[in-house]
Amino acid sequence: MTIHSPASAQSPSAARGTGVLGSGLSDGVAVAAVDALLTVLPTPTVLIATAGSGAVVVGRTGGAVHGAVVASFVGATSADLAVVLADPGSLDAAAGAESGLVSREDIIRPALERAAGVLGLGVLGDARIDDATTLFLDPETVVFDLVGDGVTVGWFAIRLRRNGTAAATGERTVVGNLGRINSVEMALTVEIGRTRMTVRDVLALEPGAVVELDRSVGSPADILLNGRLIAHGEIVVVDQDYAVRITKILDVAESLT
């Protein structure tokens, strides 16, 4: 889903902070992430990012950072990200969030996706509204003030999570570990296509409306495990129920692209 952002007309610049880095997340990556975020974050004015402080944010928000839109990115470089708006109600009202069709998470997720994109290959988890107090107060977190017309309208936080290197294990150990989890249920989803729509178009949907997808007839369907693409297949019918025939299993590198 897309929503127009005045910031997309030009690339904002993030100021390099003193005392906010040193988490292992390089200055350049942090700045690149917030720059990318601001290119699509929907705001009435063009924003710039300046070095911020998590403690100051917590103080400004009454001692706890409630109502943050947070998401976790898992990949070669993993990270936790959060966006907090000083006046989230205005964004909700402008997008018609009270209708139930569009949520604040839907509106801000594209910006989080753009920010996470600078971290390389990986998967961004579901965006959700949550308490981000711990994230903002963590000394490993890099915090930016989002400023428009001299007024701070929100904050962005990003914290690198280092991926541990798995120790070599024998085949017997691996099989034993798998035995512990082989009864765990996972969500398998078959996707035949996607599209992007403006908030206006979403709110205009009604019974009988036709939404065109990005796949042509005969194209393979995507098979996702817990939201991650793992295979391609073709839709078939088995005993009057839809099913999918696996045509290709993707390796890890392919599934992350």
Automatic annotation (TrEMBL):
The keyword Cell membrane applies. One of its GO terms (molecular function) is cytoskeletal motor activity. It is found in: Cell membrane. It holds the Pfam family FliMN_C. The keyword Membrane applies. GO terms for cellular component: bacterial-type flagellum basal body; plasma membrane. GO terms for biological process: bacterial-type flagellum-dependent cell motility; chemotaxis. It comes from the Bacteria. Its main location: membrane. Residues 180-250 form the Flagellar motor switch protein FliN-like C-terminal domain. InterPro entries: FliN, FliN-like_C, FliN/MopA/SpaO, FliN_T3SS_HrcQb, SpoA-like_sf. Keywords: Cell membrane, Cell projection, Chemotaxis, Cilium, Flagellar rotation, Flagellum, Membrane. It is a peripheral membrane protein. Gene3D superfamilies: SpoA-like. SUPFAM superfamilies: Surface presentation of antigens (SPOA). NCBIfam families: fliN. Belongs to the FliN/MopA/SpaO family. This is Flagellar motor switch protein FliN. It comes from Cryobacterium zongtaii.
